[in-house]
User: Fold these one by one.
Assistant:
Number 1:
Amino acid sequence: CYVIAHHKYEQLINSHAVKYPQSTIISTSISISQTPNICLIELDNFSTATVLFMNCTLTNARPLQYCEKCVTEYISVQNSYNIITNDEDKSNETVGCKSEILRSDNIQVVLMTYEFVTSIWKKSNCDVCFEKIPTVNGSFRYVPTNTTKTLLRKIKAVLLCFGNYSKNTLPVVHLKNETVCNMCKNLYCDANDLYQSVESQGNLCSDLIDSMNYTRKNWGNTYHCTVALPDEGEIWGLTALVCAMPVLLYVGVW
Amino acid sequence: QALDYDTIENELHGEEERKMSSSDWKWIQFQRWIICMLIGIMTGIVAVVINICILELTAVKMHVVEQAIIHCVKNRCLYVPLLLWIAINVVLVTVASLLTVFVAPVAAGSGIPQIKCFLNGVKVPNVVRFKTLVTKVIGVIASVSGGLAVGKEGPMIHSGSVLAAGISQGRSISFNLNTRFFKHFRNDREKRDFVCAGAAAGVSAAFGAPVGGVLFSLEEAASFWNQALTWRIFLCSILSSYTLNFFMSIYHHHPGDLAYPGLINFGKFSGSYEGFELPIFLLMAVFGGLSGAAFNAINHKITVFRLKYLKAKYFKVLEVVFVAAVSATIAFVLIYWNPECKPLGQDPYVRLQFFCNDGEYNTMAVLFFTPPEESVKSLFHDPLGALQPLTIVIFVLPYFFLACWTYGLQVPSGLFIPSLLIGAAWGRLVGNCVNFIWPDDIWAQDLSKYALIGAAAQLGGTVRMTISLTVILIEATGNITYSLPLMAVLLLAKWVGDYFNHGIYDMHIHLNKVPILPWEPPALSTNIQAREVMGTPVVTLRTVPLVSDICSVLSDPRNCHSGYPITDSEGKFRGVILRTQLLILLKHKEFVERGGSSERIKLSVFRDSYPRYFPLSVINVSEGEQQCHVDLRPFLNPSPYTIQENASLPRIFRLFRALGLRHLVVLNDEYKVVGMISRKDIWKWEHKEKQHDD
């Protein structure tokens, strides 16, 4: 059996043009006999969960909302992975699905995939937007924190306001959109202040950062509402005065 | 004035050694190790204090100004934060300059020139005194957090040296504190070894570069060196570096994580570059040399002007105050002017919004509204698009002149950080150009290596240090793969710079007319003989002279030498006695007529009066005592270094340089004393030649 398999692999490598039916290349009989069924099921669960998570994340990548929308999928990835890692015999490490699935080859694709998923979650700082509440059976439930909810609600209100009031006005490029600016000022400032206070505590996940950035971009670049007028006179006067002092000193001593 | 790096092997010395058992000897050797450890730890602690104070003060200052700016952008009152900024800077810097001008003027500047002189054997008054340390530490904290274009690394080296000198003596005269410990080390020779260790510890704490510290001591004091000392100094600098590490890890809430090396931390570099980038690096080195030479030339002019016209003390303080005000104003105006905004999210150190939209920050504020170390880091590590080339150009030009103007003020100020900052800025510009030419190549995406090479080139072109600077930079980047480009760049920058003028430290030493001896004897001087260089006529004393003779010799201002040759009645040369020894003998009235030999004066008496000797005027010698005799024979150094009068200048030079001599007796064919050569004679001769050439 081995010899045939090897032979066929060699042929496969040497002559790409030759196509073998799938069943002859992958000798399924071997893997079935070596990997217990229960492990295949665990692997299958993990695979499904991961696929769902990736699918969810990518669909919610723009506008960035995957922390909020994909938390269930993330938890199921975690759970299915935990089932795999906990499935081992403490006395004999070679028994159990952990070593079978995670450690039996040198690529460790399951581990890589898991790390990829967690790195997305970590890099987006998603955890800070949720509260982990322990449930009865020992696992955790992820609930959005109150600040997250409030902030999202406020941002949504601002965006809604933008939408409502910009409909009636013609888009004017590079000019302040007076209606939008006046009508939404309070809402915007409210959201901005809350955002800044949450930011100083470091409790921002990428959902919040992204939606606030989007709001701010609208406010500043689309409707041109932040126009700070520089006050020229005093600054120039002071600068001239300060720069004149050393010159006076040097001329004086010279 | 010079230091005595030669042991006086007189009868007293021999006597003391006879009494000493071998275990005493071992104990003294062991004490050296203890002192080195103490120096390392104390230097580290001082570095921690400086670092934390600056961090905290800057944070408070930035916070106050930032709040005012946020308030005033809305309410159109931006002159308020400007005034506030100026006021804070001026107050802090005034503290620094008042201390420097009125307490310890020697603490001004980076202190590296002074330490260089000290290790070379020149006595710089007050250079290793406790009040200098206090001024240095408080001054550097105030001037760095006061927003001057200065760094805290150079002063660290001076601080380490002062600590070393203080600890090794086991006492402080300022505090009238005298312990029983370390009495054996109270002379110039021992002190110098420990000051070497202290300087190394300072470098090591400043840059997190222990090996660089050892090499710094080696480079600056290379003539007096031995292997055992190297090993001790290495221990000292490692301890200093890790003491800083340890306390900074506590400060950053990761106690025990020893990964916070150095006052400045360059951060992590990728460490990869392509071979074909070396020519670009070399071109940058040439530019660095030119720019460093320009820096030195401008600073030279400014320093000459200061030495000539700014003599009154309050003018000096006033100048510092004005520079502080101008620094703040320039920073503010440039931030105010800068139209460049970038969206938040790349996590810069400060996020000053100013006129930008919400969620954006002013790019100029990243460079100006931070401690200089953080600006250097931003220039090194910020991603490609974070800083626009125009912003960097507008930043680097005023900063160059500001740094140039600031160095040499009467405040403790380091030059490393400003140089690194200027270099990193234009290095980054070069990186931007390279990226513009080859926008798609992977190797052209990493600006940090260009910033690093620029920083190295600028620093090398300014200070012209060689081996120690290379190693310091390699250690600070933590990346051995950059050693080849760094070495090449520093070498080339030094050569290019040397074509125009001297390094900035040598320049300042030269301007202060300090008789420092360079590494090598003057070129083409083999035909110069001792008799052309020596000082004549020479003042000699007899072996048992009259007190009145000694007094007249000592009080004569014309022969204010530090040592006098002793001749016997036939005019034969017997040895040398130091001025300070004579003074002590007079003070203790060691006269033959008093039967002094019954209880002879001990060597420890000489040690105890070190290093502050009293002037002649405090010694009262009565009329009767004038006619007494002093027996100098037990005290004089019977076998000092002598030289024939036809010896060549390079030979004399090497004796001075290698042995750290202070004076050399010149003998003629009949072994009679014909002259004395002091360190100053050599220096004067060299100087005279240069003037002839010009």
Number 2:
Amino acid sequence: MMAKMSDEQILHAAADWWLRLRDPGCGDETMEQWLAWTQADARHLPAFERMADLGSQLDTLDEVSRRQWAKEFGRPTATGRTWLPFAAAAAIALLALGGFLARSRFEAASAPQVYVSTVAKNRDIVLQDGSSVALGGASMLTTHYSRDERLVDLGTGEAFFQVTHNAQRPFVVTAGDLTIRDIGTAFDVRRTGQRVTIAVTEGRVQIRNNVAPYGKAGSDTIEATAGQLISYDPASSALSVGSISAEQATAWRSDRLEFIDEPLSVVVANINRYSTRPVQIADADLESLSFTGSIKTDALQSWLNALPQVFPLQVSQDGHRVTLSDARSKPAH
Amino acid sequence: MRHPFAGPRMSRFSDESTDLGAESAALSAHGERVAALFREHNRALVAFLQSRLNSLADAQELAQEAYVRMLTQEHLAEVGSLRAYLFRIASNLAVDRLRMRKVRNDRALEDAPVELPPEELHVAPVPERHVSALERWRDLRRALRELPAKTSQAFVMHVIEGRDFATVAQSMKLSERMVRYHVASALAHCRARVDELEMP
């Protein structure tokens, strides 16, 4: 090295090493060279660490944003212009086919809006197109509106959508592996981790499972109508259909959580969206116990008190948390 | 990070060496060599693993696993460069971990990591957490707009869309080396911008 490298040059070198090392095919020699580089200057390894940290951050970018970035930067402006009319034609063709993935290439999307609710607080929101959303406790919703599409992502929790229908500007909700497309509707979506349930209270929705079920090729799409409950189980990547009344589906809006054949782990995760003290399951075998029933979110204590009568578990609690443990494997306190 | 030579695994190892009597000296020399590797290279090893796994926690876990593998390796004396050997073990562990993640994603056999574990909803208020992530994306997007079109394009195609250098090179009609140069420039620029915003 002739002169001392500037911080900028070091950062560039760190980025280059990060790109090379990420390749699983990089050999011992590259690794040795990199190690020599990290030892050549005290600033090198910290710069590399900052790069690895940026990489880790970028890795958490959500799907919707990824598509937006790809759309904005994916093609150079010069060729982009001549390419637009073809893109428009393609978009129209896809819409005509009812393609889910037709994405507007006409304009930059408007800035995403994030809506969050805190524990035990439901929120009513009116979106910019007039559609309304009731957001459950500890839930998070992001909207990405463009002229041709209304994309909404449910990050976690529960939301009830009453959609102002506009066939020219589809309303699409993503929740984990599922894409839900409205066809003139009111529906409820609950996302617990990767598990998703959708209850249709009015009209119809189209639900697409973006993960191929094990042993099946492609993805599957089903249409659900009012009164149907669609459950997505991430363990099998499968959709199942049941029934639910509109009253049950939106009971949470009047402080009552309704569960139909849900694992206790899912029930507990949803209760935690309303409980001031987190409820934890200490023994994994309790997680799969199936629960059907309704729970008053303003009277969680009485549900907890009754729980040992229904399930072989015991409830222990202090001021900060509630723990459910297996009553069979441990002596009672 | 927990020191890899503390804890139950290490005590098992020591029991073994006392039982083996004559071999104990060799074994402790062996342990000493691995301990020296840890002191000298742990930071680089974790950084290397993080670049593969995109997770600091996973990187720390696998680094520890790599030392344990070295400790339980019988023929360590025959290994030429211990350092190269350590990084090779770590690299293989990273490949296995990525494969495992892919299987999980593909089959969704296990509940994918919940983005906000229920307990965390109680610890950290949701709004700040997410809004700050969102602000970071906005800032990064702004940083990308400051770059030449080719630089941001190469970056998005490789890092955001996950296309390999060969594919990006073909579609941008550039050499793979040029693509890597553009992507590195974009990364350096983004990192510098994030630093400015985080440490004004």
